[in-house]
Amino acid sequence: MPAQAPQVATRPRVPQPRPTDVFADRLLAVLSGQRPVHWMLRHTAGPAYDELIRLAEHGPLRATRGVRPVVRDIGYYVARPGAVEAFARIGAGDEVRAMAFRLEQGADLRWRCTAVELGGPRAPHRDDD
Fold this sequence. Notes:
By secondary structure, the chain is α+β, with helices and mostly antiparallel strands. It has two helices and four strands; from the N terminus they run ααββββ. A hairpin with a 2-residue loop joins strand 1 and strand 2 (83-92).
């Protein structure tokens, strides 16, 4: 009688969240005051960290009337391989804000946020003055 190969238990594959979903949640956590800005330090590149500091100073997405903001919807566009431009609709009760961000994948294959903006008037950049 031939020997049977041992059976190996396999686990069902759990789908991994997209980088756009992960970063929308991370950015919301900082801009709503749930996390400090330095929590994003290793997840940003270029001027994005400075912009995040500037945005977070004003607490633009802090809970209003006791309603905690949540990511309602996310969309994205692949600008080129390794670069994604994304938007998220952030809702807090009846209020909805737009958040846009750019992700770029480094040589180490990690995604980093390279730009972030919130809907509404933009403040001038220091080099624009």
